[in-house]
Amino acid sequence: MFTNRKEMAELLEALIINNDTTTLPSFPQRIDLLWGENDLFFSVEFAKDLQRKLGEMTSMESIKNGGHLVQLDRPFVYNKLLNKFLASVH
């Protein structure tokens, strides 16, 4: 990782995607976003923006004291919300 730093930096720079020009496909199925409120990688604001971009078939639940791996941080809350969503799917 410490060798070829210039090439590594170029690769990382190429991974950056501008959210303003990204278009998401239209999904016919319902989508449920389960998001940790303390996610350090993707904020709750990012999740709300994603929910808006995915459309009206998307719901979102934020989980208090949950981080990026919310299913590991708060497994009981996560499973409860996941079961609630799955029970509502016909």
Automatic annotation (TrEMBL):
Signal peptide, first to last residue: none
Ranges that cross the membrane: none
Matches recorded under SUPFAM superfamilies: alpha/beta-Hydrolases
Domain of life, source organism: Eukaryota
Name of the featured protein: AB hydrolase-1 domain-containing protein
Record organism: Brassica cretica
